[in-house]
Amino acid sequence: MATPLTRVEIVQTRFNDYLATAQPAAQKLSPTEKLRPESSLTVAQALELFEDQITSRLLDVASRELKKRNEGFYTIGSAGHENNAVVGALLRLDDPCFLHYRSGGLMAARSRKAGVDMIFDTLLSFCASKDDPISEGRHKVWGSRTMWVPPQTSTIASHLPKAAGLAFSLRTARRTSKAEELSDDSIVLASFGDASANHATALAGINSARYAIRRGGAAPVIFLCEDNGIGISVSTPNNWIHDSFCNQPHLHYFEAKGELDEVFDTVSQAITTCRQLRQPVFLHLHTTRLWGHAGTDVETTYRTLAEIEAEEAKDPLLTNARRLIETGAATPAELQAIVADVQSRINEAMEEAISRPKLTTAAEIIAPLAPYDEAAIRATASIQAAAEARAKLFDNALPEQTTTPTKRTMGAHINSALADEMLRFPEIQAFGEDVGKKGGVYYVTAGLQKKFGIGRCFDTLLDETTILGTAQGAAMIGMMPIPEIQYLAYLHNALDQIRGEACSLQFFSSGKFANPMVVRVQGLAYQKGFGGHFHNDNSIGALRDIPGLLLATPSRGDDAARMLRGLVATAKSCRRVGVFLEPIALYHEKDLYADGDGLWLSDYPAPNGEASMLLPGEVGVYNSEASDALIVSYANGLRLSLRAAKRLKDEHGINARVLDLRWLNPLPMEAVKKHADECGKVIVADECRATGGGIADAVIASLTEDGFEGRMNSVRAVDSYVPLAAAANLVLMSEQQIFEAVKGIV
Fold first, then answer.
1. Is residue 71 in a domain?
2. Closest Cα partner for 42 from 304, 276, 258, 330?
């Protein structure tokens, strides 16, 4: 008995049978003629599009063949979406494209423009070869530095906010000569599916572009929704995309469907509108999805055979081939020759791709994840602004001058440090909710908009996803964003913009793309009179979980200025993503041991080179001669630990050394181990929640694994949200708990 044909084979057989039996038109069109008089699509262009679409389709077939042979590892294809090749043909190479996984036709057309061998590159990606020119075997992604296609993984439209952010930032970047690869009239494209159009991230990206226009700005971005009517197994209601987006204010809507030449003309009009008006466009491209979501998807579990066959009847290759033959643009034999040529090239390239090397070590895999060049960082730190410009910036009252009271709070020092960094580096932008005109809810950015203008310090809409998306887009074209997230807990609303997008970019592009930034996050607990799980949040576990992310948190004002400079220099020099977690309760704290002692104030460290910054791994040590016990802490915990240490010495003669971690990801374990060995006993004072919220478990585990044999213990907050008023003291780590913990092990 013959083996039943697969759905792939059925679709391919139907297409090939049509070419074998079709009759040529009575009259042949010349290459320069139009498919129809009213269209702008020429015969030559149509045949190129057909070849690009065939390339995409046959690569999809090849991916499944490789999977059967256990040589390929990715089968989500573009079959049924091949008309997106029209978009690739009409965009320019200096129009950045953020593409979802069904963009094979678009990539083929774009590769033609760039002279890139899309067939071999894609096959290398299917085979997870480290010779793949974009991800080097880390994942199957569409991406290319040459073609300005930053790689995206299997996104659910999480790339739309940064696409909108890049479009929004383009004018500023061009004005400051930071986007030299792009042009004044470049536009941005982001493609996604109809199911993903419902995702909050997609809606945030579209909303932010519309908002920019409403506020008088520009946002030249095309949102390309490739509507195949289904998301894995869940169907999209009829006309849902049209009805949801066709009449949105400040969003131009175009619906591309019908014959190839009709699609071509609609796409051309959409691109022209976006390019000329510098406003967002929603391009609704009707597609179909063939062969299920991926090779492992059993489509018959949620679709009837009749429904599957109805979708297969919409095969765009069959429709386009018929159009080319019936108009006289090509003969069946010419189209068969194109198919045979593409198949031959794929067959040859496939065997070569299979033989290419794979990633074989962890070091190879993580190489682009967290680049670090200390010499380059220190060189960046040595850049100084002109003395005259700095004097003017601070109205001739420099924050470090000895002729004025210099001991100030952390909030004041961060404000001065931001001003200094913005003066040194004109590409820095500070933005976020309430950051500009108000100067921040805690006034940490006060005066920056007045000093630098609304182009460099501005307010955003109330959406953390948009804030971080804007930062990524700006960073990718040469700006140095310092976005602010108003409260630590607000970050969780948009955490994937750091985890899944910003911190993964260098990893999946092998360092060819980057979005360096320093994200200022106001957070942690101990705010008097505050409660709830937003304004007084004490958990950093989700941030420490992100590969490659630098996480710094200062405890003192002078440290804050130095650490901020270190993060900025590292971001600029190594193109890293850093989070600067600022303890709100310490912004305006003045005292250490007693009310009025002023011992938590500090002098402002002038920006006079590398000595005025702190880098990852550089910790703070207090009572360095003490050796009875080591207290390891950070942020609010440092102040509490110093108070406890003073009491331990005064009341019991116990001399405790206190170590300020400063850097929470990666943890400075080399320094911790050194001081632990010298002291012999360790207490970790971790202000975050006990179960996975902070760093205590990681510090103790690392010391144990390294063979530390001294006694250890930890003090942590209770696993609870922080309640209002004095009740907060019952769940937060206290000075008394640290005091008792040290007594208990000495």
1. yes
2. 330
With beta carbons less than 8 A apart as the criterion, state whether 715 and 743 touch: no
**What CA dihedral angle connects 342, 348, 349 and 351, to 10 degrees?**
140
Contact 413, 561 (CB under 8 A): yes
CA angle 603, 607, 612 (to 5 degrees): 75
Q: Of 329, 360, 391, which residue constitutes the final position of a domain? A: 360
- Cα–Cα distance for residue pair 546/500, rounded to 1 Å: 9
Give per-residue pLDDT as tens, 455-483.
Answer: 999 999 999 999 999 999 999 999 999 99
Beta strands in 228-297 (DSSP E): 230-231, 234-235, 252-256, 281-286
**Alpha carbons 344 and 299: distance in angstroms, whole number:** 30
β-sheet bridge partners, residue 656: 629
CATH of residue 565's domain is 3.40.50.970
CA angle (62, 68, 71) in 5-degree steps: 75
CB 577 within 8 A of CB 548: yes
Q: Bridge-partner residues for 253, per DSSP?
A: 282
Query: Quick check: 40 and 34 in contact, CB under 8 A?
Result: yes
- Judgement on whether residues 580 and 713 belong to the same structural domain of the protein: no
Burial class (CB in 10 A: 0-12, 13-18, 19+), 227: buried
Residues 356, 402, single domain; the answer is no
Residues 381 and 306 in one domain: no
Q: Which residue has the tokens 């930032």?
A: 169
Q: CA–CA separation, 506 vs 242, rounded Å?
A: 36
491-534 pLDDT tens trace: 999 999 999 999 999 999 999 999 999 999 999 999 887 777 77
Q: What is the DSSP letter of 300?
A: G
Tell me, yes or no, whether 600 and 626 share the same domain: no
Rounded Cα gap, residues 109 and 493, in angstroms: 37
Tens digit of each residue's pLDDT (9 = 90 or more) over 73-129:
999 999 999 999 999 999 999 999 999 999 999 999 999 999 999 999 999 999 999
Q: How many CA atoms lie within 13 A of 297 on its CB side?
A: 19
Q: In the 3-class helix/strand/coil scheme, how is 551-570 assigned residue by residue?
A: EECCCCHHHHHHHHHHHHHH
Q: How many folded domains does the chain comprise?
A: 3
Residue 561 lies in a domain: yes
**Residue 1 in domain:** no
Range of the domain at 672: 620-745
Tokens of 637: 């915990």
**Domain boundary residue, one of 612, 643, 666:** 612
Domain match, 310 and 434 both: no
Both 98 and 74 in a single domain?
Answer: yes
Taking only the tens place, the pLDDT of each residue in 272-283 is 999 999 999 999
pTM here is 0.96
- Token pair, residue 323, equals 């159009």
pLDDT at 4: 85
Q: Quick one: CA torsion of 555, 561, 564, 565, rounded to 10 degrees?
A: -150
Q: Exposed (0-12), middle (13-18) or buried (19+): which is 357, by Cβ within 10 Å?
A: exposed
- State the average pLDDT for the chain: 95
Say whether both 595 and 654 belong to one domain.
no
DSSP string, 589-657: ---SSSTT--TT-B------SGGG---TT--EEESTT--SEEEEE-THHHHHHHHHHHHHHHHH---EE
Say which CATH number the domain at 688 has: 3.40.50.920
Does some domain include residue 597? yes
The alpha carbons of the chain give a radius of gyration, in whole angstroms, of: 30
Domain shared by 553 and 448, yes or no:
yes
The continuous run of DSSP H or E covering 420 comes out as: helix 410-424
Q: Give pLDDT, residue 178.
A: 81
744 burial (CB, 10 Å; 0-12 / 13-18 / 19+) is exposed
Residue 466 in tokens: 């948009």
Listed in order, strand segments (DSSP E) in 381-459 are 428-432, 457-459
